[in-house]
Amino acid sequence: MFEAQGLMVFYENMLALNNVGLSCGDRQIVGVFGANSAGKSTLMYTLSGIMDDIAKKERMAGGERITIRGGISFQGKDMFGVKPAARARAGIILCPERRRIFPESTVLENLHIAGYLASRQQTEETLDYVFTIFPPLTKITRRLGGFLSGGEQQMLAIGRALMAQPKLLLLDEPLLGLSPAIQYWLAKSIKEIAAERQVAIIVAEQYARPIMPIIDYGYILENGSAVIEGDRDKLMNNPDVKSAYFGS
Ligand code: ATP
């Protein structure tokens, strides 16, 4: 239901995405794995439309020339070039790298702010769900975002994305900076969210170990190109993937 073809992104003359195609079916979890600078955030920004905004701002400020090419469709509709806010209304919600929660707002306020796309009933129901899937948040509803641990911040960031009623959730490096125990716990939660909220998830991550076991299909990104793709078992049994991500 979500499809991207031939995505190319240039920062000036530097090719950051090279002919990347990707698809994600209903309720599927798709992984995009790559090292630092592989192009994961560029891809997530391009899928969510934020790349178009960044390109426009640069153009208006006389900054670097960013060129975006390719095709994106969601539920049969052409989404390429569509504004990020309109993509969000269509259900494409990005949970950005490094969480980006509001540090001076409380946990509850952070969640409510994101509910602007939801009806009152959806807001109440989704709040209940967020506190069910992330129980540690129930004890800190009045704490300021800036005073949360990394794990709590990530729970809040995903919770906030859920409040926006996603049909396709884009998670950019959700495990960054978290302890291995929390990484595995979050990966399990991400799998539960896909099943329980009937949401499709594309997750970009350099820590493949906890994420690869929960995906349906995945891509390995290297220097802006998708060099290997396949279902979970194919990827996990690929010798190059094993040596790069599983140390064997
Ligand atoms: P990380 O894990 O470090 O976030 P990433 O896989 O998300 O890495 P990107 O942030 O997408 O990678 O970066 C891909 C490449 O594009 C890198 O070489 C990066 O330096 C370059 N890049 C990213 N943003 C810009 C920009 N605004 N101008 C120029 N080059 C950029």
Structure explained in plain terms:
The protein has 248 residues and is an alpha/beta fold. The chain has a domain at 2-91 and 166-245: 3-Layer(aba) Sandwich (Rossmann fold), CATH 3.40.50.300. It contains ten helices and ten strands. A six-stranded mixed beta sheet has the order 6-7-8-3-9-10, with helices on both faces. The chain has a four-stranded antiparallel beta sheet with strand order 2-1-4-5. A hairpin with a 2-residue loop joins strand 9 and strand 10 (225-231). The longest helix has 17 residues, at 180-196. It is globular. The mean pLDDT is 94. Bound molecules: adenosine-5'-triphosphate. Adenosine-5'-triphosphate binds next to strand 2 and helix 1.
Q: So what's the overall shape?
A: globular
What is the tally of helical segments?
10
The share of residues in helices is: 25-40%
Q: C-alpha Rg, in Å?
A: 18 Å
What can be said about the biggest beta sheet?
Answer: 6 strands, mixed
Tell me, rounded to a whole number, the average pLDDT.
Answer: 94
> What is the N-to-C succession of helices and strands?
EEEHHEEHEHHHEHEHEEHH
How far apart the termini lie comes to: 35 Å
Return the CATH class of the domain at 2-91 and 166-245: Alpha Beta
Note the beta-strand portion.
25-35%
CATH H-level homologous superfamily name of the domain at 2-91 and 166-245: P-loop containing nucleotide triphosphate hydrolases
Strand order of the largest sheet: 6-7-8-3-9-10
CATH topology of the domain at 2-91 and 166-245: Rossmann fold
